[in-house]
Specification:
lipid biosynthesis; about 45% helix; Cardiolipin synthase; 3 domains; 15-stranded mixed β-sheet; Endonuclease, Chain A; alpha/beta
Amino acid sequence: MEIVIWSHVFMAAFYILYFAVIITTVFVVILDNRNPVKTMAWILVLFFLPVAGLVFYLFFGRSTRREHLISRKGYARLTKRPMAEYQTQVSLHAPIEKQTLMNFFSHVNGALPFGGNRTTVYIDGASMLADLIKELYRAKHHIHVEFYIFEDDAVGRLVRDVLIDKAREGVKVRVLHDDVGCWKVSHAFYEQMLCEGIEVMSFLKVRFPQFTGKVNYRNHRKIVVIDGKVGFVGGMNLAERYVKGVPWGVWRDTHAKLEGKVVYGLQTAFLTDWYAMDRTLFTSAEYFPKTDVRGNVVAQIVTSDPVGEWRDIMQGLMMAICSARRYFYVQTPYFLPDEEVKTALQTAALAGVDVRIMLPKKADTWLIHKASLSYLAEMMKAGVKIYLYRKGFIHSKLMVSDDEFSTIGSTNMDFRSFEHNFEANAFFYDKDTASALKEIFLADQRDCMLLSLKVWDKRSWKSKVTESVVRLLSPLL
């Protein structure tokens, strides 16, 4: 009898303690003053999936936005040389309508716009990889490599071997990879580079049992800097699928090689991330060498992260969408826009701007793809044209507007990229780059199906219900 009584007492105490933890967590979520939609999503998860919801929140929900990864003093030292080069510029010939956007990024993000750059755009992994290896072999002083995924496969091993060759020649090589993005990669893969004198670090390590909210904040950037003069940025990681494709078709992505002073922006982004993990700050002139005029492209490297006060890239994209007068084209593998971006796209379309969004017909992540599909009907009702890419999987993060503005980078049009990830995009303010990216979009459009709202509304109720249910979790995905 006593055993039964003590059993009931124990269970009652457990439930009281457990629900106290749940209620406390809900209050923490509310007091964090997040986006109301996101707050409600977490509250629903915590109440209706109490055990799983609490675990999910502990791993993915806690905010570390006030965590300072680099001091103001350190950042000022890091940008001193790029600032000096920026101030020597006579003028930047950017469209008047886009100078406000350029000034916004300069003020909020510290992104310095530079003229006199040259851009080479890649739309497949093979051509990018071939050019990357060629530029790596030309390195004389240093190579900085930063990828979300650096896979131990044919592509990853090829790049690794090139880096080892250069390290043996005396070139200083540093590699930064995301810890979660490379979870499946064995330590032996990176240890081989370490043994050859290459400095290798993982970004925000996550290890059991100290499994913390750091898993929610990932470094999604794809950056390569060679001798401070040549840089690569875009959507491609170092993995075989970016070259060989997926079982249902090609892997369509967009990447860019940059030559000119805009590479200072990529260098600053890499060295900031390196300092955040290693607490070593590199500011010497050898990392920011004098660079001649290479072309006529005006460009900025803009970064975003969950640490800062503002959502830099998201807010900039809102400005770009709202300032579009003729067209605004978007390629993104995932479409889970926050309310502000969604409203901006709809408003532009309702004002007569030709807004087009290109998504994969079949994606690599079922859950996120289903959530993405739930937004399409309301976009089409506002006049936004939706194109579904049928040739394979489109992973490209490309945007172009009015033949005068364009961007390539790692930022997807979703909550995670806007709020949780460390991202990097190149923003361009010239007609030639915009025209080239517009032609790429229109060429891809021929491999797409244009959705009709009338036909889309006739899809099965099962699909509609699944999409709507998954959408409830979209702020958390």
